[in-house]
Design brief:
Organism: Terriglobus roseus (strain DSM 18391 / NRRL B-41598 / KBS 63)
Distance between the termini: 71 Å
CATH architecture of the largest domain: 3-Layer(aba) Sandwich
Shape: globular
Signal peptide: 1-25
Pfam families: TPR_16, TPR_19
Keywords: Repeat, Signal, TPR repeat
Protein name: Tetratricopeptide repeat protein
CATH class of the largest domain: Alpha Beta
Helix content: 55-70%
Structural class: alpha/beta
CATH topology of the largest domain: Rossmann fold
Length: 525
Amino acid sequence: MRLVPLLRRSAAAALLILPTSAALAQADEAGGRVVLVLPFDNRSGQSNIDWIGESFANTLNARLRSAGFLTISRDDRVYALDHLGLPTGFRPSRATTIRIAQTLDAQFVIVGNYSLKDGNVIAQSQVLAVNQLRMSAPIEQSAGLPRLLDVENNIAWLSARSMDPKFAVAQNTFQAASAGLKLDAYESYIRGITATTDDERLKRLKTAVELSPTNADALLALGKTEYANGEYDNAAAVLAKVPANDRLALEAGFYRGLASFNNAKYAEAEAAFAAVSIKLPLPEVTNNQGVAMARQRKDATALLQRASTADPQDADYHFNIAVALRRRGDNLHAKTQIDQAVKLRPNDAEAKQLQGVVTGATPPAPGFDPQERIRRTYSEAAFRQAAFQIDQLRAARLATLPPAQQATEYTQAGQDYLNQGLVLEAEREFQSALAADGNSPAGHLGLATVRERSGNADDARKEAQASIASKPTAAAWLLLARLDFSANQTAAAASDISNALRLEPTNPAALSMKSSFQSRGITVQ
C-alpha cells in the first residue's frame, strides 16, 4: 500500500480544470522528483539538541519544495513509519529506508547526522537514489550553532545539486530564503510540532509566534493546534494572520474555514473555503464551500456536484447532492445520488434511511433532517502534489510558445514571487526565462535583483549589465546605481541615475535617487 498513489486521486481532481491528457501525462512525470528527507541522527550524546534533527528535515523540505522538488511532509513520513509498524523516532537502516521510500513512492531519500563540538554544529548527509540503489558521496557542512540555518541551507542546496546536476539556482539564494528567521523562534517551532503532549505543543508554538509573529509556519501550526483543541475563535484569528500570498495560505484558509464552520459562522466559513478553492479547487474544498452555503439556506447544489464530479468515488459527496436535491423537491435525481452513495458505502445508516425516504419506501422519522456533510481532513500532500502538477503543466504549456513569449511569462511569475519576498522561487522563474531566451532583458534584470537581495553584488552587477546590453531600461540602470553607491562609487552611481532619467525622465525612483544625491552635494545630470 503506497501513500502517493492514494493522494493522486485528490490531486488529479484539481487538474480537471486543465486538459485531461496533459494532466495525466504530467501526473506521471511529477513523480520523478519526489524526495523524502528523514530527520538527522543526533550523534552528540546531548539529548537537549534532539530538536535539531527534525529542524534539518524541516529546512531541507522547505528549500527543496521551493526549488521545484515534491517533498514528503512530516505527517506523511510519520504515517509511513506507522504503516510499517515503526515508531516515530526510529532511525532506519538502509534497507528500511528503501522500504519507507517505496511506501511513499519517493525517488530520493536524504539521510544525515550531526554532532556538536566546541559550539560548532558538524553535519553530514547523503542522498539515496532509490531506483538506482545508489548513495551519493557524503555532504559535509559545519558552523557555529547560531549559524545552524546556514548549515541546513547549504546542505539543502548541495542535495539539490546532487539530485539534479543541472540545478542552476545559486547557493546564496538558498541562504537568503531564511533571512530574518530567528533561531530561537525556529527552535520553539520545531519543539512544538514534535511535542508529545497537547499542553507542551501549545506552549512551544505560542512562544514561537511571540518570538516571530509573522512566521507563517508557526502561525499555521498554532492555529491547527487550537482548532484541534476546540478553541475555534482563537484558531480562526491566528490562521487569518497567515499572509494571503504565503505558500501556506491555502492550508490556513482551509482550517480557518473549519474553525468558523464549527462556530456556526457559516458566511465566514464560506468565504474562507472560496478563497482556497479559487487557487486550488480540490473536491474537499469545493464541497466544504457548498456545505457552508447550505447552512445559510442557500442552494449549493452546483458546488456539491462539482466536488462529486472531481471525485466520484466519494460517498459523502453523493450523499450531499442527494440532500440538496431533496431540499429542492427533486426526489427523482436525489434518488440517483443516494443510490450511488449507498453503493459506495453500504453500511451508512443515515444514507440508507435517506434512500428509503426519497424513494417513498419508508416515511421520514420524526425530526429526520439530514444535513450536508463537511470534510474535516486536509491532505497537505494532495494539495502540494496538485500545485506541483499544475506547475508542471504550466511549464509544458509554455514550452509550446515562442522563446520570447516564454521568457515574458516566466519573468512575470518571477516578479510576482519577488513581490512576495520569495527569492528562491523567483530565481527558478528567471533561470527558466533565460533558458528559453538567453537575451531576455527582463530575465537578466530579475536575476540581478535576486542576486542583489541575496548579497551577491558582483553577480548582480553582471546580470544588470547583461540586461542593459540586451535592452537598456531605467530599472536596470537604477539597480546598477544602488550597487555602485553601496560600493562607494558615487560618480558611477550618479551617471547610472542620469542614464535612467534619459530613458524615463519622470521615473519616480530615479527622481527620488537624484534628489537624495543632490542633497548630499553630488551632481546628477
